Amino acid sequence: MSVQTQYPTASVPPRAETQVRAGGPGVKMVARDVKVYYGAKQALKGIDLDIQENRVMALIGPSGCGKSTFLRCLNRMNDTIENCRVEGLIALDGEDVYGRTIDAVQLRARVGMVFQKPNPFPKSIYDNIAYGPRIHGIATHRDEMDEIVQTSLERAGLWNEVKDRLREPGTGLSGGQQQRLCIARAIAVSPEVILMDEPCSALDPIATAHIEELIDELRENYTIVIVTHNMQQAARVSQKTAFFHLGEMVECDDTEEIFTNPRDERTQGYITGRYG
Amino acid sequence: MSVTATKSRYQSAEFADRLRRRYAAERRFRLAGMAAVGIASLMLVVLLGSIVGKGYTAFWQTQIRLEVTFDKAQVEEGNTMPLLRQALYAVVPEVTDRAGRRSLNELLSSGAPYQLEAMVKANPALVGTKQTVWVLADDEVDQFMKGFIRRDVPESERRLNDIKIGALDKLAAAGAVKSAFNTTLFTAGDSREPEQAGIWGAIVGSFLTLTVTMLLSVPIGVAAAVYLEEFAPKNRWTDLIEVNINNLAAVPSIIFGLLGLAVFLGFFGMPRSAPLVGGLVMALMTLPVIIIASRVALKAVPPSIREAALGVGASPLQTVAHHVLPLAMPGILTGTIIGMARALGETAPLLMIGMVAFIVDIPHGLTDSATALPVQIYMWADSPERAFTERTSAAILVLLAFLILMNGLAVFLRKKFERRW
Amino acid sequence: MQIMALLLVLALLTVIGFQLGRSRATASVGGRTVELHSVPSYHGFYVALWAGLPALLLFALWTASEGWMVMQMVLAGLPGRLTHVDGQALSLLRADILNLAHGVNTGRVPDPAVAAAAEQYVRLRSLGDWSLLVIGSCLAMGGLLFARGRITPDLRARNRVERTVNVALVVCSLVAILTTIGIVLSLLFEAMRFFAAVSPIDFLFGTHWSPQMAMRADQVGSSGSFGAIPLFAGTLLITAIAMAVAVPVGLMSAIFMSEYANPTLRTWLKPILEVLAGIPTVVYGFFAALTMAPFVRGLGQAVGLDVSSESALAAGIVMGVMIIPFVSSLSDDVINAVPQSLRDGSYGLGATKSETIRLVVLPAALPGIVAAVMLAVSRAIGETMIVTMAAGLTANLTANPLEAVTTVTTQIATLLVGDQEFDSPKTLSAFGLGLVLFLVTLTLNMVALRVVQKYREKYD
Q1: What is the full DSSP assignment across C301-361?
Q2: pTM for the full model?
Q3: Residues B13 and B86 in one domain
Q4: Closest approach of C331 to chain A, Cα-based (Å)
Q5: What tens digit of pLDDT does each residue of B366-397 get?
Q6: Of B6, B19, B23, which has the smallest distance from its Cβ to A190's Cβ?
Q7: Any idea which fold A27-271 has?
């Protein structure tokens, strides 16, 4: 997949500044009637969703249902895909993320992302973490940077494992460690929201357990949206769950509600394993 | 690091300011990329422009009309130059002194008598009659008529003196000077006189050389590729061959010339300047290109085809010969054409094996002395005459036309037969 | 003539052999071809191979050795005063005979004995060609008849044919190895002869190069005139200028095309670089000598600098232009090999495009880019035509790009173009230079190809 963005203009024409009042208190991000097209093909058919502050929201659904596409709309990662067109409204703290007041760079600093496959840069562990703060000019002194690196690694639960080899390449770590490094890297820029796109799908069960624990701890300071294939995982880590199916958001509720008492029969079919 | 603090960080004026600077850097970087592409495009335009600008005039050649009496005695003697000169003197009767007439003599190409002889040979009845003939003008006359020798500079600094210009003006006023399509350029061999020089000899030489190259490198290259891709066991030995081929593809071409000189000329005693040797050297040089291209083409044929053929009981060789090779053929062909185009433009190795000689005759066989089109360009580029510069550019245009033709064919084949598995 | 005739005869006999073999195989089982071990056409190929292959091998051996053998016979017939001389004079004599025999005008009146020898040489060659035609045809005929006689229903024709074809394939893949061996041996052999006359130390570390002087008899092998340092320095200077043009422009073009240009723009830009890559070097040389050099000179004069008309700068710039597409396409490959996930990771942290390229993509692609630059350097060092046409011939030891310098390849080309005595140190020095050139470029290529391979494996 080649990168074809025309920074800073997004594939959506800039609109007048919109203050979105929808959602209510405690709502970090809202989506209203979000439609996404890849060329002529429609991938999302009008999604409405509220994402609450300091909660973990899980997006579940069969593959190809649009949950990853939706996730990538939240920090405009879809801008980097050719032919991708986004319609509708997505707001962060009431501000339209495709509007004039926020641009993609600023948005992505506030809405971080962790990817399906661990993707540490081929640099040292230290430089991996310091990359974000450096480009955003967060740390002015060396000491400050050291501190950011340490806190980020500590929060990601990786500090004790790597503190003696910060100068070694991040690609030399194990898969689970790499993914925690990527989480630490995302934390280092102090985002408000962290998006996770199936962060454990490439990891073994022990590493997965580590990450899940970490997600639970991170909820205290961050709003987290996680896409997962694994319903047990969704049940374990999230407070809210949204079920996606064929480009639609079928239902969204408290995680417990969804898993014990789904209202839609498609949801029920999916969680009972009839398809997916 | 509280949440409120971070909010203010990314929404602060400071961050906005920094963001502006970052976007400015972004624009500069993008601009640098555009500039690089722009420089490359500009150089191409300048290069082609300068060659077309220098060369297009070479496709026309000035001729002079004379009323020539085919005097029997002199025609039989083979001494027709005086006939032409008499005819010229008749046009400018006022020039009578020796020096002046010598100037007039220089208006005509030294090749003009051959034209008369050819006319007589074609039609013996011409002898004894008076005919109107168009003969080649000297290259300096040609340059003057094309405007490259200016008449407003003092006579002492001009290549054409006043007598010549006066005579030319008179001829031109009588309609006896014309610019005709330069057929000599496409039909003659090399010559010391620009107006008699042509590239046909070099084209034939290139053709003969490339024929040898193709006959050797294509079968050997395809066979080697088939072996390496389809039959060779994967061991140290085949690894060595592979590394060797990749390195051979990057060896400077002049080294192949040294090889040809030492082995084909020195050891085997083959003749110098022969297209046969040129072809051999070029074949060794293009071989890696063809092997690599053929292997890529063979690799692109999916294994399922091989399995299907083997499954119905074909031997491995039959599988390759009947199924894999035909499917890989368009790719192999494209690679071959590109390799041949490269060989056509290659000069350095041919210098080493003596294809750089001054050769007037058109070569007729693989062991005749010959030169090649790029070598002809190299030799002409060294000649000081303005007329040769013009012809060098024209020869380059012809060479480029051949290359465009070959590459166009390759692109066409690729487009036509391209298959996605 | 006879050679063409022989090849024609062979072609004909193989076709006939194929037909005969096939029909005989069919006839041997009375048309019930299922009873044959191999299908009839394999019997055809079997007979055709027997008809063509031995004769072709004979042909190859014969043509390779005929010249040498005939020359030995001719030399044996010459009076001792001509042949009992040292190796150098003997090879001159050989060259004289060959020149006379091929009708090359050397401008000298030949010794009558040599002239007679040349005539004899021509006669013997012609005789040899005729006998080759006769013997070759007989051999082909014999092979055909032999193979035809062996055809039975049980003949494992397919296996035999396939084994032969397999051997042929292996032989073909060995040609590349043989070429390398040929290059190494011929360079080594001739360079050894050069180093017998000039010490390698003087050659590699001497600072004075004037091979013409050594033409005088009293100076053959005189040390000092074959010091190649100025050539190496000149080569490096022009290569450095070329790289200063090609690397930034090529790399930035590759970045622009793969990361910024939209598909439409790319379909326009790619052919431009491809055309630039397809232009023969002799054309670049002409452009350098007739357009770029006067331009650079004029520019220099305009600002009051004295620029040589064969300045290293002009040749270097044009060479750089020639190498732009090379650098660009190699960098394009390595940049595209950097996984998208790394770019996503960087964008996801809020990096701009140029930050992502400069801080993530390029460092990740660095090994590949270094390898590409090494290959480009190797290409620049080995490039001949541009420097032969646009750089100077005098060996200046200077780092000033406005002066004329000469290069290794220029010297090889000028030393070996035109009439030459094969044994003078002057001509042999070209092989010494060739050996150095080969070793340097080979090392660069080997290392670069290895790095590229490692790099590919990393991201595959």
Answers
A1: HHTT----TTBHHHHHHHHHHHHHHHHHHHHHHHHHHS-HHHHHHHHHTT--HHHHIIIII
A2: 0.87
A3: no
A4: 15
A5: 878 889 999 999 999 988 888 999 999 999 99
A6: B6
A7: Rossmann fold (3.40.50)
